[in-house]
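Please fill in the sequence for the structure shown.

STRUCTURE ENCODING:
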């Protein structure tokens, strides 16, 4: 499905701007397209779908995401045990506990996107 980075866009919806910048640097450095947004702008983008969005990375606990079969979600949280990784039954959702390394973030993104 994903033969290499840069094949699908990622949407970042995180509350802290410094985390948006950090995730952008990490992911763009590996060829991913990154769209940074706050919760409301992310919801608007996902609802309107001006272009396909395949991955949402968010720390928002609110279930605001409109369902589409192609959308994968990576929830990042500081309230889970350190290093914990939880996978949804259908493989479309993964939860990652902060703090995590750049490598773990990239592996999680690649796993969710099928590559």
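FILLED IN BY: designer on duty
SEQUENCE:
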């Amino acid at each position: 499905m994903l033969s290499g980075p840069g094949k699908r866009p990622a949407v970042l919806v995180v509350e802290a701007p410094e985390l948006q910048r950090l995730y952008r640097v990490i992911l763009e450095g590996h060829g991913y397209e990154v769209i940074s947004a706050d919760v409301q702008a992310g919801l608007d983008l996902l609802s309107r779908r001006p272009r396909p969005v395949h991955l949402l990375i968010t720390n928002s606990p609110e279930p605001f995401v409109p369902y589409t079969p192609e959308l994968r979600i990576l929830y990042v949280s500081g309230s889970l045990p350190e290093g914990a990784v939880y996978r949804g039954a259908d493989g479309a959702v993964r939860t990652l506990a902060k703090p995590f390394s750049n490598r773990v973030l990239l592996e999680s993104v690649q796993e969710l996107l099928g590559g």
